[in-house]
Amino acid sequence: MTRIGVGLGVVCLILSSYVFAHSRASQEALAKQSAPGSSDATQKDKSTKASAANEAKRAKSVTVNVVFAGDTKFVDAVKASCQDPHADKLQDCFAEEIKKAGASEAAVEFSRQLGEPGFVRDFRVAGPVDIAYVFYPYRANENQSWVIVNGTPPAIDVDNSKLVTIAARALKNNAAYTGLAKSHPDLSPWPGDRYSTEIPDVEMGANGGVHIIVNYRLREKCHSCAVLGHAWYSFEFDAKGIFAGARLMAISVTREKAPVLRTTSKMAGTSIGTSVGEELTIALPIKDAAGSEWILAKALDTAKVRLIEHSHVAPPAGNGAAGTEEMWKFAAFGAGTTQIAFQRGAEKTITFKVFVRSRAAGPNSSSPKEQ
After folding, report:
1. CB-based burial of residue 255 (10 Å sphere; 0-12 exposed, 13-18 middle, 19+ buried)?
2. Could you report how far apart the first and last alpha carbons of the chain are, in Å?
3. Which pairing describes strands 325-332 and 279-285: parallel, antiparallel, or unpaired?
């Protein structure tokens, strides 16, 4: 995936054009139906056809049936089989291969619509819209993605650079971001963790709407450059699933050489101190480096802390050995006291008390233009 170009703060401007056009088309259709000379029978017939069309549209909405369980063995095999450099032929080959591997018709069709070889590995219901966790096996970087489906527009890839074409105005109006950019002039947003299914946070909005909270890594120049912080956006939908825009919520900062809290089951009840706008990392021991072992034992108080990312297996130790820890990274959003609790199987829950100190200009402090 290409990196996000210059920011997300004005996605709403792009979508507002779409909503306006949709509204105008609806008004024109309504005007035609109520025009003089239209008989009741004609209007009733049109209404019946429109209702049938709407039912058909709802029947075709994306469901959990689009999920395909493609493991590493399948990915290796399909990459060996499908190597045609022409995009359309590669796409067709990939679709045929997942079909042969047992993917449902819905999964194959969704894969074809992605525009490049990929499949939905997980699915999450999110109120009036839903989230498809997509894997793109041919990408060199950012091969995981979130696609918000079943809304208007029908699919939004949160990392689609074509959607994000206007300069990062909202970021430039945020004090935390501009402060960070002074020492890092090439700072820009890049896709965040799209692998973990614990995120994104999904929060109910007003009148049945929903907010999907998406974070982006802040780094300079390259994929391998250090992550300096995260920009948090709320993708906001109304009760009908119409996208209202992406609103900048906060900036959290990764402090250089910030300590990592490494823990064992004997450390239950340990206290952690941090400040609003800071990020903290907790490392948990694992027995099997092949997969994830820990889960959050209870929902976070997201008014105070949010999960940034969860590395299911930590990076190698540097001596050729596999990592022996799971890394959980959080951002402090609001002042106060809260808890972060972890569970592994039937073992005793490990709970950390987190004390978040306020500060004069936290990540939630925004200029009037961001509201």
Report:
1. middle
2. 30
3. antiparallel
CB 351 within 8 A of CB 269: yes
In angstroms, the CA 271 to CA 352 distance is 6
Residue 234: is its pLDDT beyond 80? yes
- Among 215, 192, 216, 206, which residue's Cα sits nearest to residue 237? 206
Q: Using DSSP bridges, classify how beta strands 350-357 and 271-275 pair: parallel, antiparallel or unpaired.
A: parallel
Backbone conformation region of residue 192, classed left if phi is above 0, alpha if psi is from -120 to 50, else beta = beta
Q: What amino acid is encoded at 212 in this protein?
A: I
**Token pair in block for residue 368:** 């009037």
DSSP 242: B
Q: Which DSSP letter does residue 116 get?
A: S
What's the pTM value of the predicted model, to 2 decimals? 0.79
Report yes or no: 238 and 207 within 8 Å, Cβ to Cβ: yes
pLDDT at 108: 96
Residues in contact with 33: Cβ distance below 8 Å, sequence separation at least 6, in sequence order: 43, 46
Do residues 104 and 111 make contact, with C-beta atoms less than 8 angstroms apart? no
Amino acid at 73: K
Confidence of residue 250 (pLDDT cuts 50, 70, 90): very high
Q: How would DSSP label each residue in 6-54?
A: S-STTHHHHHHHHHHHHHHHHHHHHHHHTSTT--HHHHHHHHHHHHHHH
Contact 46, 31 (CB under 8 A): no
Contact 129, 156 (CB under 8 A): no
Q: Which amino acid is at 52?
A: A
pLDDT score, position 168: 59
Average of per-residue pLDDT across 83-110: 94
Per residue in 141-199, pLDDT tens? 889 999 999 999 999 999 986 655 444 567 888 999 999 999 999 998 899 999 999 99
Task: Provide mean pLDDT across the span 61-66.
Answer: 94
User: How many angstroms separate the CA atoms of 184 and 186, rounded?
Assistant: 6
Token reading at 68: 């395909």
Q: Which amino acid is at 327?
A: M
pLDDT of 298 strictly over 60: yes
pLDDT band at residue 222 using 50, 70 and 90 as cut-offs:
confident
